[in-house]
Amino acid sequence: MTAAPLVLGFETSCDETAVAVTRGFEALSNVMASQVDEHARFGGGAPGVAARAHVEAIRSLTHSALREAGVHSMDLDAVAATQGPGLAGALMVGFSYGKALAWALEVPFVGIDHMEGHLFAPRLEHADYQPPAVVLLASGGHSQIVHMRDWGSYETIGSTIDDAAGEAFDKLARFLGLGYPGGPAIDAESDGGDPTTIDFPRALADRPFDFSFSGLKTSVVTYVRRHHEAGTLPEMPDIAASIQEAIVDVLVNKTMNAVEETGVSIVAGGGGVLANRRLRERLVAACEERNLSLFLPSPALCTDNGAMIGAAASFRLGRDESTSLGAEIDSSQQLGA
Ligand code: KG4
Ligand code: ZN
User: Which DSSP string do the residues of 154-197 spell out, in sequence order?
Assistant: First the structure.
């Protein structure tokens, strides 16, 4: 395999049908169709809807990705797709489509761990991003802190014991009537809000690297009901900013605990929640204060995308690794397991 393989990458683990063409760690195209509008009608990801929408979108997105990259399918060196974790029905669409294309084109197929994909996202924009690093991965399905000793060598040192951070944003936004997906809604609503208005709980103070967000949800619901009845409810931007601060505080503090524990000097992030403006601001400040280098993907590469799958596949191909066409999806895949 040449040093920089031309890869067609598929990501269909959840709401987005995403397809990209990458050469090595460079994205030549990165297109997606979001099902957010359809899910908004259900107030969240509905598995049956996800699978059908992926089937409808994937063929024309593949053509767009190739056209935008200016390459022909015959030029591809490999095809890659997310193998897991994610929604089984959704994963199966991209994984099967990718395997079929690889078979037809007679090129290697690479199944990629979705979370490893997120670990490679910063590399698409920063050639100098190198392990060892501590990486905060926070999305709708996962919240974990990974010690990346080297490319391909990952240890999860902390994770959520209940809801993921993105899930907390989504559930709370729905409760407050702010819409779906909740992260961007709370992020926008927080503009001009005072994050010190309400001191929501920061859970699991005794566990330095783990998260828990279900208590926050209960606390917000109780607070809003009580103050709504009493007519003492603060303005919505103040409530949103206070919720956001409670989540961000915990994410930043535990990431910094992991930095201290591992002694690394590089911090990175991935997953949709890392698109959050307040989280990015706080991570920049925390890293500046400690003289750490921070590598955050731009917001469009924080959320699920095909380019990160292509980049991770480049790494795997560089180690002469590929995946059998007989392989199946693994919806419960664990990073580093
Ligand atoms: O990585 P991602 O696109 O998909 C999953 O693998 O889950 O992450 C989606 C999650 C959703 O929960 C969404 O609310 C959250 O990321 N998110 C945000 C922001 N943008 C997306 N959370 C907070 N602030 C944002 N700006
Ligand atoms: Zn993701």
Answer: EEEEEEBSSS-HHHHHHHHHHHHT--SSHHHHHHHHTTT--TTS
